[in-house]
């Protein structure tokens, strides 16, 4: 997914940089980098990221914070005026061409409410004013472990898991194991493209057939987080009701024009409420005309559909994420554009051409 950085979104006034006398209290954080392990609220409910390397924070020596929330980049300020005390300024984010997740919204909103921190067993705990805490581990876990004394490592292995909530009265266990050391980003998980992919063909083979019936949503394992389900759109059209009757959950607004209707629906969600087993369904004058992928898609995988544009009554264009083996899950390096032809008489949509281009900035 190409990051189109166009401007900074300022999320409030930025705190002033810390006074020189306050820097001594900040030695445990200055120059360290961390990645999210989990968030636990005051009621004990736990929220985790699918990929911890997508949620990182760096406390820089110039009293600024650099954050990575999914594919969004943010900056802010930080100051610690006494042991365990922490003040964080609101975050300014770059605009990125990727969806905002519930965890992104939560962290961006709660960040200025962090009031204290503690480092225990190499993990950093950031506590909120109203209860709850974020648990983070050093971004370069291997380097952090290698720098811990052998006795400290043995003690850590014999203790129970680190507490998931720190309080303002907690005392820091000492400087972070990576304090003052240059950090090395943990390698992102690669998303290798399937071989072969229908998107590799200049003229993909059509899979939709005239008169086909709407498919039922595939069965998904595991319970769905109610917060994810609340994102589903309420049925409005007859086509909406047909899909929900077959087990699909409607996502986002539908697109329509020239007698065409395109609706996105999913069978489930991942831990970050991104759609799983989702499809884009095309209707022509109320009649089902086909899907825009030969099989359901998962977010952040090769071939995931990103955008649909209606050109006219007989053409639409769909864009799909294309990953190379070295791509981070947040950022596919290429985009495939497929032109679909619509046959109004037969109520049929079929791919006519496909082309793939790089997402690299010119």
Q: How many structural domains are formed by the residues? A: 2
Choose one word for the global shape. Answer: elongated
Q: What structural class should be given to the helix and strand makeup?
A: mainly beta
Strand share of the residues?
25-35%
Concise summary:
The chain is mainly β. The chain has helices at 102-110, 141-147, 150-158, 226-229, 238-245; strands at 8-10, 32-40, 46-47, 55-59, 64-69, 72-79, 87-88, 92-94, 114-120, 123-128, 133-138, 249-250, 255-257, 260-269, 275-284, 287-291, 305-312, 315-322, 334-343, 348-358. Strands 1, 2, 3, 4, 5, 6, 7, 8, 9, 10 and 11 form an 11-stranded antiparallel sheet that branches. Strands 12, 13, 14, 15 and 16 form a 5-stranded antiparallel sheet that branches. A 4-stranded antiparallel sheet has the order 17-18-19-20, with no helix packed on it.
Structural summary, described in words:
The structure is a single chain. This protein is mostly beta strands and 362 residues long. The protein has two domains: 8-158, Lipocalin, CATH 2.40.128; 198-358, no CATH class. 10% of the residues lie in helices and 34% in strands. The protein is built from five helices and 20 strands. The strands form three sheets. Strands 1, 2, 3, 4, 5, 6, 7, 8, 9, 10 and 11 form an eleven-stranded antiparallel sheet that branches. Strands 12, 13, 14, 15 and 16 form a five-stranded antiparallel sheet that branches. Strands 17-18-19-20 form a four-stranded antiparallel sheet, with no helix packed on it. Strand 6 and strand 7 (87-88) form a beta hairpin. The chain is elongated. The model is unreliable at 1-25 and 142-194 (pLDDT under 50).
């Amino acid at each position: 997914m190409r990051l189109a950085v166009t401007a900074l979104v300022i999320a409030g006034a930025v705190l002033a940089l810390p006074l020189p006398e306050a820097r001594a209290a900040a030695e445990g954080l200055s120059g360290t980098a961390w990645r999210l392990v989990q968030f636990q609220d005051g009621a004990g409910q736990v929220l985790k990221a699918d990929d911890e390397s997508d949620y990182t924070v760096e406390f820089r020596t110039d009293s600024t914070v650099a954050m990575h929330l999914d594919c969004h980049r943010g900056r802010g300020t930080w100051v610690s005026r006494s042991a365990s005390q922490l003040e964080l300024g609101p975050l300014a984010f770059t605009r990125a061409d990727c969806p905002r997740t519930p965890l992104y919204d939560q962290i961006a909103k709660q960040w200025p409410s962090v009031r204290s921190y503690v480092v225990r067993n190499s993990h950093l705990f950031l506590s909120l004013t109203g209860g709850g805490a974020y648990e983070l581990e050093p971004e370069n876990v291997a380097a952090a472990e290698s720098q811990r004394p052998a006795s400290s490592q043995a003690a850590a292995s014999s203790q129970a898991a680190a507490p998931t909530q720190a309080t303002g009265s907690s005392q820091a266990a000492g400087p972070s194991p990576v304090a003052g050391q240059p950090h090395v980003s943990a390698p992102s998980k690669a998303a290798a493209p399937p071989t072969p992919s229908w998107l590799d063909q200049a003229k993909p083979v059509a899979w939709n057939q005239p008169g086909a019936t709407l498919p039922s949503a595939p069965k998904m394992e595991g319970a769905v987080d109610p917060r994810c389900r609340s994102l589903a759109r309420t049925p409005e059209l007859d086509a909406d009701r047909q899909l929900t009757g077959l087990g699909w959950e409607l996502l986002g607004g539908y697109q329509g024009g020239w007698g065409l209707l395109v609706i996105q629906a999913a069978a489930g969600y991942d831990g970050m409420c991104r759609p799983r087993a989702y499809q884009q369904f095309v209707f022509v004058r109320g009649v089902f005309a086909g899907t825009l992928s030969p099989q359901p898609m998962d977010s952040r995988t090769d071939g995931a559909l990103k955008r649909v544009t209606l050109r006219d009554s007989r053409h639409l264009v769909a864009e799909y994420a294309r990953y190379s083996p070295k791509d981070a899950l947040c950022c596919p390096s290429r985009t495939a554009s497929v032109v679909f032809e619509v046959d109004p008489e037969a109520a049929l949509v079929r791919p006519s051409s496909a082309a793939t281009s790089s997402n690299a900035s010119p």
